[in-house]
Specification:
The protein is mainly alpha-helical and 111 residues long. The protein is built from eight helices and no strands.
């Protein structure tokens, strides 16, 4: 059994080091398979990952961006990621290139 809710809770209330670690764990789990990507989203993982991208440590931002990237490979997660306003901070921090943002935005608007 995975600890998605525990990782999500840490993203919401942990310190910067704990948030970076939790984001990294979710990034790795999301990379493994589609079931993990769906379960992380269902556990409410998208909004706190976006918050870490906005205001976390540099390490936390990079790991949260990776988690969002992996979650976005599930088409059902693209709309919620865009709705959480993830794209502007990714672009601002150079975690997502402008070209990829334009492509991603087009996909998100189609969802």
């Amino acid at each position: 059994t995975h600890m998605y809710p525990t990782h999500v809770a840490v993203l919401r209330s942990g310190d910067a080091v704990a948030k970076a670690k939790a984001a990294g764990e979710l990034r790795n789990l999301a990379a493994k398979n589609a079931d993990n990507r769906a379960a992380i989203a269902a556990a409410g993982g998208i909004p706190p990952l976006v918050e870490v991208v906005r205001s976390g440590s540099d390490e936390g931002k990079a790991k949260a961006a990776g988690a969002l990237r992996n979650l976005a490979t599930n088409a059902n997660n693209q709309g919620p990621i865009a709705a959480a306003d993830a794209i502007p901070p990714l672009v601002t921090d150079g975690l997502l290139t402008v070209a990829r943002w334009a492509i991603w935005r087009g996909r998100s608007e189609a969802v």
